[in-house]
Design brief:
Elements lengths: L11 H5 L2 E2 L10 H16 L7 H4 L6 H6 L4 E2 L3 H5 L2
Antiparallel strand pairs: 1-2
Length: about 80
């Protein structure tokens, strides 16, 4: 809740991979939605592992817990991409 719902909108690992987690409409994720997203992730991971395979068949490659929480996981724009290089 404090990492995804915080100012950088990503966990430490996501930042290292150049990812960020906004809401589906482009807004910031609130700490409450981030906690809900984390609970859905751990619930699906521990009890319903096959649900994580959902993203293999989804056209947008979103996991079910991302869809239910209304968040996206996207690549952050890099300095070279913003400069058009």
């Amino acid at each position: 809740a404090f990492t995804i719902g915080g100012p950088k909108s990503s966990t430490i690992g996501q930042r290292m991979m150049g990812l960020t987690v906004p809401m589906w409409y482009g807004g910031k994720v609130t700490p409450l939605i981030a906690a809900f997203h984390a609970l859905l992730f751990w619930f699906s991971l521990t009890l319903f592992f096959p649900i994580l395979l959902w993203c293999l068949f989804d056209s947008q490659k979103r996991c079910l817990h991302d869809i239910l929480a209304g968040v996206l996981v996207i690549n952050r724009p890099t300095a070279t991409a913003q400069a058009g290089i």
